[in-house]
Amino acid sequence: MSAKSNLRRKVRGSYAISTVSIALVLFLVASVGYIIWNLSKATDNIKERMTLYVMMEDGCPEEVVEQTEFKLANMEGIREVRFISKSEAAADFKSFAGGNFEEFLDYNPLPASFEVRLAASESPRELVARLEGYITEWGGVDEVIYQQGMVESMDANMGRFKLLLAIFGAVLLTISLILLKNTIRMSVFSRREIISTMKLVGAGRWTIKRSFVVDSLWMGVAAGALASLMFWGMLVALNEGMPYVVLVSGGEVMATIFGGIFVAGVLLSVLFTSAALNRFINMNSAKINLY
pTM of the full predicted structure? Predict the structure, then answer.
């Protein structure tokens, strides 16, 4: 009775450790993935704030202006187009500079223009160069103005930033999977005597694996539930502690994340348990007892 109790206690302890380990790995990977996702969205928002100004020639016919607006609105890589008339440009300059230049010049030298906001792109510099090359060839367009230094700096820095995030995520995932694999392997190892006994009484491979796989499935579900609770607690803490930071949220996004946590928990638990089982099932029963 004492031996059975010790075995049960050992098995329960190993399963509890495996469940918590899977939950911690799921929580860590989900949290880092969520942070990387938000940082990626933030970089896209920065890219979408990039603005080109398409300056029209003075005295350009209204039909040409309308054609230019239509072509800009339908170009790939452009998110939003706003027409700024000569009078609007003058009003903006007066509010910015605080003076009325038309009193001295007797005319408005500012041209009509289009404020063009760009869509997020992997390479802002290439997008801007491509758009500039097309637009400057159109009739009625005088020039295209943008902050070239900012575009080049953003293109270089954003690329490095995303590469570092990808490397960090890949390293973290690899380390987490290795630790999880060893933890589940130790859990199966604690039940090696049960595997040996079932083999001695003639149980087939699937018969031995069935109970372990079912247990690992429930272990994955429990780990997914625990990881989801920890992830939800992290979101609540972030929203309360940093309300000024806008995080990606919404019912569909959260459902995808929590669903992914549960599916990953079940898959990791079942796959690693099956892999560890194959090792002991293929091992000679005498060696199992000496292992």
Answer: 0.65
